[in-house]
Amino acid sequence: MADDLEAAGTATSYSGATSAASPRERSRPRGAGRGLYDLDRTDLSHLLADQPPYRVNQVWEALYAKAALPEEMTNLPLSLRSRLADHAPAALRTVAESVSSDGQTVKWLWEGSDRARVETVLMCYPDRATVCVSSQAGCAMGCTFCATGQGGLARQLSSGEILEQVAHARRRARTRRVTNIVFMGMGEPLANYERVWASIERMNADMGISARHITVSTVGIVPGIRRLSHESLPVNLAVSLHAANDALRDRLVPINRRYGLDALVEACRQYRSVKNRRLSFEWALIDGVNDRRSDAAELARIATGLAAHVNVIPLNPTDGFATRGTPPDGVRRFRDLLSSMGVAVTVRRNRGTDIEAACGQLAARAAQPSPPA
Ligand code: SAH
Ligand code: SF4
Question: Fewer C-beta within 10 Å: the chain N or C terminus?
Fold first, then answer.
């Protein structure tokens, strides 16, 4: 079960609830601070108990519709702004911000109160923007080619920490509307299911981001995919396949030993038929490993059977994995092979490589120690 995985990956990550703790408190991961975006309306009404009732809506609107910081809520009395800032400060502190040379991609490195680190990427397009969010600090899945996986799991992120990443990116996007969210930053979203889903519900209901523009990317946690298919909101599903036979996938993506390809394909089929949402496969092309004609043929068999779109991307090099990404002519050859086999395929542009903002590479610098405060 996905829940087993949550527990197994983070056996000590819950807040060690005392009998006095509310369910919300118990769901807060150990180490996570309680930020403004971790409050629900009830928490907020307690915090504003001495205020006129309309204040709760006013603050909620400011947080979610406007992505405002407490100090920017100038329609509130100064004392109230300070109360908000004192009682529910930002859960994540900015450690670094980098901007790509073309100015269109921004990456942040954040630190929680326990110094756990995560990253977020904002990708700007002429008329809109996409935010790539992290769902965990680190990841327990151990994919061999992934910088995050090589570092292991530090802890789960709270829903508020996920939402805070979006709010921050929205402020930075300024007049560009953030229309799309992808869970392709650090971590495996389906191994932090409850909190990720709670954040998606709030993005959809309160931040005005349509579920159809939210993509959950998973390494292939089958019970999590099944559970997702029963949710009311129709999010997009991206499955990081990378290999279409069990022997190779077992090597690249160790969770495949637990949830093999047959079970994964079946869960994808169910997702498609229940949700009628777009399904895509991610395929990081690794030179001489998964870019051969036989790999294309195996992938085409699975992708055409599910009418799935395939996104190929040359592997970003990481220190912990010796093999390199497929060179550009090999990427084109692989794409053309897939196309000729009837697969809808896109070569993903690797945005922000000059600031190491490419997905899957986000932990590369995160392991470095904090600069002095
Ligand atoms: N854990 C989730 C989401 C985060 S990883 C998942 O695995 O899907 C986001 C994407 O980056 C995944 O498709 C992942 O396989 C890919 N990725 C990881 N390391 C990479 C690398 N070194 N080069 C290219 N893509 C990589
Ligand atoms: Fe985790 Fe995804 Fe990296 Fe695999 S690719 S280690 S699941 S973040």
Answer: C
Q: Which member of 124, 132, 139, 359 is catalytic?
A: 359
Per the structure, the count of domains in the chain is: 2
* Residue owning the nearest CA to atom 16 of ligand 1: 360
Q: Decide if 340 is inside a domain.
A: yes
C-alpha dihedral, 191 to 192 to 197 to 199, nearest 10°: -140
Contacts of 272 (CB under 8 A, 6+ apart): 279, 306, 307, 308
What count of other Cβ atoms lies within 10 Å of the Cβ of residue 293? 10
Q: From atom 7 of ligand 1, which residue's Cα is the shortest distance away?
A: 219
Q: What ligand is nearest to the CA atom of residue 242?
A: 1
Q: Tell me, yes or no, whether 153 and 301 share the same domain.
A: yes
Active site residue 119: yes
Which one from 119, 164, 282, 356 is the annotated catalytic residue? 119
Q: Above 80 in pLDDT, residue 357?
A: no
Q: What is the mean pLDDT of the chain?
A: 88
Which residues, judged by CB distance below 6 Å to any ligand atom, belong to the binding site of ligand 2? 139, 141-143, 146, 148-149, 187-188, 219, 240, 360
On whether the pTM is more than 0.85, the answer is yes
| Boundaries of domain holding 51 | 40-87
Q: 4 vs 181, 199, 332, CA distance in Å?
A: 26, 21, 40
Q: Is residue 264 part of a domain?
A: yes
pLDDT (mean) for 172-180: 95
Residue 346: left (phi > 0), alpha (psi -120 to 50), or beta? beta
